[in-house]
Amino acid sequence: MTGRPAGPRLRDTLSNPRADRVRGVRALAGRSARRRSGTFLVEGPQAVREAVRFAAEDVRDVYVTDDARVSHPEIVDEALEAGLYVHPVTDEVAHAMSEDAQGVIAVVTARPEHGIDSLPSDSTLVAVLSAVRDPGNLGAAIRVADAVGADAVVLAGDCVDPRSPKVVRASVGSVFHLPILRAAGIAESAAQLQEAGLELVAADVSGTAELGAETHAMLTGRHAWVFGNEAWGLTESELASMDHVVRIPIAGHAESLNLATAAAVCLYASRFARG
Fold first, then answer.
1. Alpha helices, DSSP H only, in the chain?
2. What is the mean pLDDT of residues 80-101?
3. What one GO molecular function would you report for this record (predicted)?
4. Residues in a beta bridge with 252
């Protein structure tokens, strides 16, 4: 691959859990280390597999235990075929790098973040997530957007770092499948998405339309679902900038759905409306 020196890619086994390399990998759990190094941590066989398959040019190193090499030989095979450095590690080293990796870890170079002006011009379905603070929610919502075939995810305002190990792990590698764009806030997102020809559909308990038969027609066209913060949702001014505000019907006694579940319900409603 371009920029990779020639020679064997399967490295010597790493066995010292206190080595500088091991400490450096573990430090990537923190945002400051990610910013300094320009890299981020990918944990677990599913997420590492997707990094190798969809972003091999950005993968710096893959670390794998003996047991994981037996359980997931395709990861090692594909990494070596792509010319990546694969480091066998002991169980102790793998645990020192990450307690949640199931013996498979990768360090990936972070690409520069792009703004909403990089939205693909032919986008027909977009998910906008505003001020999401929970990494599990963000990762799961990105995974749902990927699953329904959304063209992009827009992170509006002060969202959790999408390269956080918890976000990457919760997305199960979907962060490598579709554009994740940044916007200063809902106002910027709304203006640019509407200018691009997408209608804005907010999910909010105040919605005058109920998700279902009465919203089917609005979800057949080009649109973006907008989801607010887990605790306070969307403000009145933000809701006023939407083309539609839709509420999810709740038949039981639950007060509401969490963000990731609401995103799944709404985005799949769009998928079903399109047939």
1. 20-27, 31-37, 45-54, 66-71, 73-81, 91-97, 135-147, 165-171, 186-195, 236-240, 259-273
2. 96
3. methyltransferase activity
4. none
pLDDT, mean of residues 30-40 = 97
**Looking at 109, 126, 148, which one is the last position of a domain?**
109
Which two structure tokens, joined as six digits, stand for 114? 């792009």
99 lies in the same domain as 134 = no
Domain with residue 190: its CATH number is 3.40.1280.10
Q: What is the pLDDT of residues 206-234, one digit of tens each?
A: 998 999 998 999 999 999 999 998 888 89
Answer whether residue 190 shows pLDDT above 60.
Answer: yes
**pLDDT: which is higher, 32 or 232:** 32
Helix (H, G, I), strand (E, B) or coil at 186: helix
> Do residues 52 and 59 make contact, with C-beta atoms less than 8 angstroms apart?
yes
Token pair recorded at residue 46 = 């599913």
Edge-to-edge order in the sheet of strand 223-227: 114-115, 180-183, 152-156, 125-130, 223-227, 199-203, 244-247, 209-210
The domain tally of the chain equals: 2
Range of the domain at 86: 20-109
Helix, strand, coil percentages, rounded to 5, for the chain: 40, 20, 40
Are residues 227 and 93 part of one domain? no
Boundary residue ending a domain (71, 86, 109): 109
Please tell me the distance from the alpha carbon of residue 158 to that of residue 134, in angstroms, as a whole number: 11
Tell whether 161 and 211 lie within a shared domain.
yes
DSSP, residue by residue, 26-83 = HHTTSHHHHHHHTEEEEESHHHHHHHHHH-GGGEEEEEE-HHHHHH-HHHHHHHHHTT
- pLDDT tens digits, one per residue of 105-120: 999 999 999 999 999 9
Task: Tell me what the mean pLDDT of segment 33-51 comes to.
Answer: 97
